[in-house]
Amino acid sequence: MLSLSLPKNKALTFGDETMAVFSIIKLSELEGAKRIDAEYYKPEYLIVEKKIKRCTHDKLNNLISILTDYHANGSYETLRNNVELLDKPDYALMLRTLNFVRDDFKCDVKYISKHAYNFLVKTQLFGYEVVINKIGEPGEVYMVPPLPNKMSLGMNLFMIKPKEEINGKYLYVYLISSFGKIALKRRVTGAVPLSIDKDSVRDVLVPVLNKELQLQINNLIENHFKFRFKSHDFYSQAETLLLEELGLKDFKPKYEKTYTAKLSDAFSAHRIDAEYFQPAYEEVVEKLREKNIELKPLRKFILSIQKGIEPGSENYQDEGKPFIRVSNLSINGLINRDQKYLSKELYRQLRETYEPKQGDFLLTKDATPGIAYVVKEQIEGIISSGILKLQINESEINKEYLALCINSLIGRMQIERDGGGSVIVHWKPEQVKTLKIPLLPLSTQQKIASLVQQSHNARRKAKELLEVAKRAVELAIEKNEKEALDYITQSEKK
């Protein structure tokens, strides 16, 4: 429990009584301060700011020309399965936190009208803008990729445009470094939901490193995005090859407003909701049958299936071993989104059964069902009950090919049908096993899998470049700018 003591000898004492951690702040140091809550003066925050102040630094407010959070005020629509996106040139993508977190700017797309895009000029995005979450996960920072589409700022995000005095890509890296994260975390308010406001963002201290180092950071981030785009391109090639081989490349399902279904079909499916009988769902399967594509239920390829575990929210911690929930899994691997942790002791008890191993096939069944991912590197963590861990018979099907089938239009539409209109979607294990998988020749499956692997390799390289940039900034603050430059040079030689 954090506490604030009354002034004694013109000083304030802040502390956590449960852990006997205290910060003593001179009253003179609080003059002009907008916060006197104990949380704001935690020792770790004070240590970080002290290190930043050793560098040439300034407040973010003095280094930026724009800090905006205008948005379309909910004036957006969802494109069903994105099939109409390219036919809507008068609309702009509205980028939301979800798109940044999952590094996916095609899935669950929202868009705004041409009128809204032109009216809300300050929300227009052109690439490489810094954006910051306002609520939910306040203080999380992202950079807008230079996409070919028209783009607009989504809800609950701040957008920052720096002045010439500071490089925008360097500013981004600083804000996602350990120092920038703590500087922003300190300014998050404890209200429910947690949030950060404009004045608090403007107040963040930023080390202004020399131009040479900023340029090196800039180059690392540009290369980071090049590899990200390569990753997206390889994955797109894999999807295109799959759809071409299945005869679905230009296929656009037609969602009917009215339709009929046989009562016998309703009894057979044990479903009477209208959405389940939407003709568009069956249309995909019929297209495959017309091309004589063999379809087999997923259960034919499963050697074993293991559901994750729910240890209870009372066991969640702020640090420890990762507890991997559905929100932490994407088609590209793990993402750090509202990450929860378990104690090392509990982790040791559960790891034998619930820790994914390299080569395991992970598949989500709840909330966002149908996210399939083949584990590329050993994961240290425990999967939640919303995730299934499958062992796949690789003599029958290529795992990467299978994952792509499930993540593609073919899998998405079947899963959307099974999930129904529930608020929290649940994909039952018996439904998982009946998912129809199209079978292409193993040689074609391997070509598709090779493209997916190349996508992963490019994504890994992009991540490595970002980590080098972050570590260089941290070294410049912790030690000096020369060590940071030397570190970048050594990293380039590896």
Description of the structure:
This protein is α+β, with helices and mostly antiparallel strands. Strand 1 (2-4) and strand 2 form a beta hairpin. The protein has helices spanning 43-54, 97-101, 114-119, 168-176, 178-186, 198-202, 211-246, 263-269, 279-290, 344-354, 399-407, 409-419, 429-434, 442-478, 481-493; strands at residues 2-4, 11-16, 21-26, 57-59, 64-68, 76-78, 92-95, 110-112, 124-125, 130-133, 141-143, 151-153, 157-162, 205-207, 294-297, 302-307, 321-324, 329-330, 333-334, 340-342, 361-364, 372-374, 382-383, 387-392, 436-439. It is built from 15 helices and 25 strands. Helices cover 38% and strands 19% of the residues. It has four domains: 2-41; 64-208, Adenine-n6-DNA-methyltransferase TaqI, Chain A, domain 2 (Alpha-Beta Complex), CATH 3.90.220.20; 211-247 and 442-494, no CATH class; 294-439, DNA methylase specificity domains (Adenine-n6-DNA-methyltransferase TaqI, Chain A, domain 2). Strands 6-8-7-12-9 form a five-stranded mixed beta sheet. It has a four-stranded antiparallel beta sheet with strand order 5-13-10-11. The chain has a four-stranded antiparallel beta sheet with strand order 16-24-21-22. It is globular.
Question: What key attributes describe this structure?
Answer:
494 residues; alpha+beta; Adenine-n6-DNA-methyltransferase TaqI, Chain A, domain 2; 4 domains; five-stranded mixed beta sheet; four-stranded antiparallel beta sheet; 15 helices; 25 strands; 38% helix; disordered N terminus
